[in-house]
Amino acid sequence: MDDLGYRLANKVQLTTDGFSAYRNAVDMTFGNSVDFAQLIKIYSATPDVGPAKKYSPGICTGARKVPVYGLPDEAHVSTSYVESHNQKMRQNMRRSRA
């Protein structure tokens, strides 16, 4: 988070998943100079039988947008941008190994 803080010159809107440690990290890096929200996904129960019970999370049934600091624009509270970027990076790395 510190590395991100050094790279940004202007106030930004930041969205993370619901991992609780992000709140502290964002607070320590940006204080109140960021519009920060968390997108908390809601999952159903895990399957009751078979290998899926042990290895699979429940099905995502929804998400809550929780403003944390500043005034985040609810229309832009999303982790899709970074998830799409991470998927593209994984695909490119897989292609380079072949």
- How much helicity do the residues have? 25-40%
How do the strands line up in the largest sheet? 1-2-3
Instruction: Output the radius of gyration.
Output: 17 Å
The major sheet is characterized as:
3 strands, mixed
Mean pLDDT: 86
Amount of beta strand: 15-25%
Give an account of the 3D structure.
The longest helix has 18 residues, at 80-97. Helix 2 links the parallel strand 1 (13-16) and strand 2 (35-43). The protein starts with a helix and ends with a helix. The chain has 4 helices and 3 strands. It is globular. With 98 residues, it is of the alpha+beta class. The model has no long low-confidence stretch (mean pLDDT 86). It has one domain. Strands 1-2-3 form a 3-stranded mixed sheet, covered by helices on one side.
Give a short overview.
The protein is of the alpha+beta class and 98 residues long. The protein has one domain (2-97). Helices cover 40% and strands 23% of the residues.
